[in-house]
Amino acid sequence: MRIACFDSGIGGLTVLHEAMKRLPHEHFLYYADTLHVPYGTKSKEDVMRHVNEAVAAIVQEEVKALIVACNTATSIAISQLRQTYSIPIIGMEPAVKPALDLNRTTGKRVLVLATPLTLKQSKFKDLIARLDDQSIVDSLPLPELVHYCEQLNFDRSFMSNYFHTKLSSYPLQHVGTVVLGCTHYPFYTNILREILPSHIDIVDGSAGTVSRLVQILEHEGPVSCSLQKDGYDRVDFRCSSQDQAYIHKMETALHILRNQ
User: Fold this and answer.
1) pTM (2 decimals)?
2) What secondary structure, in 3-state letters, does 234-245 show?
3) Which domain does 44 fall in, by range?
């Protein structure tokens, strides 16, 4: 049986890529809700409805676990999904804890980059209230970035100008770690490394999410021992619009990640 990975678009491929590295014997289903991408600028009610529809379609397939590879969808729908379905469901959250662990003794601040809806949800606010006892976490919404990623816009000049503009009001000399709080954002890690001061670490939630998946799979039973071919043969791509051109886009985006 396959492990499903779900996002509104191609962003969750960053999590899938990590899972493919950590679980080389597993087979995956990747589902993009292309009819409703992006989630991060929609209302909470709309996102809840879209997520429920997408997951209902996913569980019709033979899947043994589901990664909700979207911070926005996790913050809104994860509790309801776990109450509705019996398979293990792993969510995402901005990697605030590892970022704080890196900065507690340095005097530097943490800057969380995420979608507007993620930053507005009580799940994110509760996370900060629980972990940020030194009040060193700032946040910055980047609503355009998912759109650029969905366009496969990785032009270094254009994106560098975008990030310079967005970050211009932040005293980066006081920032120790930048958290990529949307699964689309790690596509731009290399560009961010070029423009951010060298002392700044960049973290995202993919590694922690996949570590949790591995723990759950090992608890449920032995992981798959049937070796799949490396590459696309290990992934079945689906999208809610049933758009073959978008499936090709997903294959292209995964290839970009594998060659970064």
Assistant:
1) 0.93
2) HEEEEECCCCHH
3) 2-92+206-258
